[in-house]
Amino acid sequence: MKGLVGGGKTNYEFSSSNPMWRASLEILDFLPLSTVDYSGGVLITDWYNDTNSSNESIKITIRFLSNEIATNNLKVIVHKKVCETAVKCTTNEIKSKISEELQKNILQKAALLDAKNKKKN
Asked: Looking at the domain assignment, is residue 86 inside a domain?
């Protein structure tokens, strides 16, 4: 039973110590999150729309392919939902500036958080 509660020499890496994870959460803090799975390396927002276009919503998925701060270790996917009526909607992945900008901002923020953390230690 002792091994089940972490009595051994296990090294845990929690999300608060991961700069990419922290940066993503800070940048997406204005969006409601539907899935937050640190061990699976994925963040998914709920559908979000601004008041200007009530029939269009976006959902953002961020996949962490590695903990290393690098462009190829972070995948940002944006889906757009357009509803003609409450029950007639289409959803598609979109290639847009949103995903590029999010990726760039997350990597920049993660690099700053990492530098701050290294400076502390």
From this structure: yes
Look-up: residue for tokens 């963040």?
Answer: 43
Domain of 107 in residue numbering reads as 17-120
Report the 10 Å Cβ neighbour count for 72: 8
Q: Return the pLDDT at 121.
A: 67
Q: Are 78 and 43 in contact (CB under 8 A)?
A: no
Number of domains in the chain: 1
Name the pLDDT band for 16 (thresholds 50, 70, 90): low
Residue the block writes with tokens 């998925």:
61
pLDDT digits (tens, 9 = 90+) for 20-29: 999 999 999 9
Whether 4 maps to a domain, the answer reads no
74 contact partners, CB below 8 Å, separation of at least 6: 20, 62, 63, 64, 65, 103, 106, 107
Q: Which residues contact 112 (CB under 8 A, 6 or more apart)?
A: 23
Adjacent-strand bridge partners of 77: 61
In angstroms, how far is CA 66 from the centroid of its own chain? 13
